Amino acid sequence: MPEEDLVELKFRLYDGSDIGPFQYSPTSTVAMLKERIVAEWPKDKKIAPKSASDIKLINAGKILENSKTVGQCRVPFGELPKAVITMHVVVQPSLAKAKTEKKVDEVPRKHICSCTIM
After folding, report:
1. Concatenated DSSP letters for 59-100?
2. In this structure, are strands 18-24 and 7-12 parallel, antiparallel, or unpaired?
3. Is the CB of residue 7 less than 8 Å from the CB of residue 85?
4. What is the CA radius of gyration of the chain?
5. Omega before residue 81 within 30° of 0, cis
6. How far apart are CA 89 and CA 37, in angstroms?
7. Contact, 89 vs 55, CB < 8 A?
8. Do strands 85-91 and 7-12 pair parallel, antiparallel, or not at all (unpaired)?
9. DSSP 3-state assignment of 117?
10. CA distance 35 to 81
């Protein structure tokens, strides 16, 4: 594949640091990008994804779907030559996992009524 067809992407993390830039084919899927982000995630970060499903990618204000390709997600920026596209990464644990952890963390509370009728 010719080098001019490749799309250069970097991924901005929650603390402002970046992963990348890396070059991808326009046919690469968002799911492939997420796998790469998990593999390249800095080890010194407090918040880290456990899997690609814990990551949301945002480009131009839209959450990207796993089945979409880089070419479909790319927003034209006035045809800037060799521009690096920055995608924002949000780490969001899966909902089912968060609910089970919440149940474990909750301490059963006894509800005591202290009403007095006079």
Report:
1. ETTEEPPTTSBHHHHPPP-SS-TTPPEEEEEEE---HHHHHH
2. antiparallel
3. yes
4. 21
5. no
6. 9
7. yes
8. parallel
9. coil
10. 27
CA–CA separation, 55 vs 89, rounded Å?
Answer: 7
Q: Token pair for residue 40? A: 């390249």
Predicted confidence (pLDDT) per residue in 48-106, tens digit: 888 888 999 988 888 889 888 888 876 655 455 667 888 889 998 766 554 555 554 55
Distance CA 34, CA 66 (A): 8
ω into 26 cis (within 30 of 0): no
pLDDT in tens, 47-64: 888 888 899 998 888 888
Tokens of 90: 């949000």
